[in-house]
Amino acid sequence: MKQVAHDRAKREKSPSQDTLGYSVADEETEWLQSLLLLLFHSLKRHPPLFLDTVKNFCDILNPLDQLGIYKSNPGVIGLGGLVSSVAGIITVAYPQMKLKTQ
C-alpha cells in the first residue's frame, strides 16, 4: 500500500510525464488491489482468522443454494461441507487455531 501511495504521489506531482501510460482503469482497480493485498497479509499473519474465514465461506454455500440466491450443484455443496467440517476438526484438534473473541 505504501508503494501504491508513493506511485500515486509521484504521478500527481508530475502529471505531464507518462500521460499515455495512465488509465482510468488503473485508478479504479487500485483500491481493489490495495484491499486484496491488505486482506491477504492479514489472513497470512493470523491463521485462526484465515481458518474461520474459510469455514464461514463454506458454511454459507448451502443456505445460498437453498434460498435460490446462488445456485450450485450438489458437488460444490458437498465439498463446501467437507472443507467446513475439516476446518472444524482442526479447531478442535489444535485449540490455538480457534478464533478468540473477547
Shape: flat
Q: Evaluate the radius of gyration.
A: 20 Å
**What is the multimeric organization of the chains shown?**
single chain
Number of domains: 2
Q: Could you list the spans in which at least 5 consecutive residues all have pLDDT below 50? A: none
Mean pLDDT comes to 85
Q: Give me the count of strands.
A: 0
Distance between the termini: 29 Å
N to C succession of SSEs: HHHH
Helix content: over 70%
Structural classification: mainly alpha
Note the main sheet: none
Query: How much strand?
Result: under 5%
Number of helical stretches of at least 4 residues? 4
Which features does this protein show?
single chain, 102 residues, 2 domains, 4 helices
What does this protein look like?
This protein is mostly helical. It folds into 2 domains: about 45 residues; about 50 residues. About 75% of the residues lie in helices and about 0% in strands. It is built from 4 helices and no strands. The longest helix is centred in the middle third of the chain and has 22 residues. The protein is flat and about 55 Å long. The chain starts with a helix and ends in a 9-residue tail after the last helix. The mean pLDDT is about 85.
In terms of topology, how is this protein built?
Layout: H1 2-13, H2 24-45, H3 47-66, H4 74-93
Give a quick summary of the entry.
The chain is an all-alpha fold. It is 73% helix and 0% strand.
